[in-house]
């Protein structure tokens, strides 16, 4: 059996720009992508904490160290500048591997600078 497991997430990132005129995707600071294990062009889910919107797109690298999180294309109509979002990515693996899986959780501050990284999900923690 193959399971789809959350491999990593960037938790409560602040959208720095919504660019509806760009072709599509979400531009993310490579420091954040590296910390969460997200690869360029990888499928990601974006969950908007501010308005409840959920969408799928692909990640592209922005400027390293910038804190950039820019939602591009039509998604810019769902997720706006300054919204708080969670960016997730998933991987498929065997059930045996899934039982050992520990996702990368990256928490950021209001400027999208990394505050902590862990492999634990804490439902009660808000930043």
Describe the structure.
With 127 residues, this protein is mainly beta. It has a single domain, classed as Barwin-like endoglucanases. The chain is built from two helices and nine strands; from the N terminus they run βββαββββαββ. The chain has helices at residues 30-36, 95-100, and strands at 2-14, 17-19, 26-28, 43-48, 54-61, 69-72, 84-94, 104-108, 114-118. A nine-stranded mixed beta sheet has the order 2-6-3-5-4-7-1-8-9. β4 (43-48) and β5 form a beta hairpin. The chain starts with a strand and ends in a 9-residue tail after the last strand.
Strand content: over 45%
Number of strands: 9
Low-confidence spans: none
Task: Describe the main β-sheet briefly.
Answer: 9 strands, mixed
Strand order, sheet with most strands: 2-6-3-5-4-7-1-8-9
Instruction: Domain count, please report it.
Output: 1
Helix content: 10-25%
Distance between the termini: 36 Å
Quick structural overview:
This protein is mostly beta strands. The protein is built from two helices and nine strands, in the order E-E-E-H-E-E-E-E-H-E-E. The protein has one domain: Barwin-like endoglucanases (Beta Barrel), CATH 2.40.40.
Features:
127 residues; nine-stranded mixed beta sheet; mainly beta; Barwin-like endoglucanases; single chain; globular; 9 strands
């Amino acid at each position: 059996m193959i399971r789809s497991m959350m491999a990593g997430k960037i938790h409560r990132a602040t959208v720095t720009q919504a660019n509806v005129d760009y072709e599509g995707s979400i531009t993310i600071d490579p420091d954040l992508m590296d910390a969460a294990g997200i690869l360029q062009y990888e499928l990601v889910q974006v969950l908007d904490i501010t308005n409840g919107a959920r969408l799928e797109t692909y990640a592209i690298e922005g400027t390293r160290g910038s804190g950039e999180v820019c939602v591009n294309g039509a998604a810019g109509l769902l997720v706006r500048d300054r919204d708080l979002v969670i960016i997730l990515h998933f991987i498929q693996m065997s059930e045996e591997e899934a039982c050992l899986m520990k996702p990368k959780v990256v928490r950021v501050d209001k400027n999208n600078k990394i505050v902590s990284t862990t492999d634990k999900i804490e439902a009660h923690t808000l930043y």
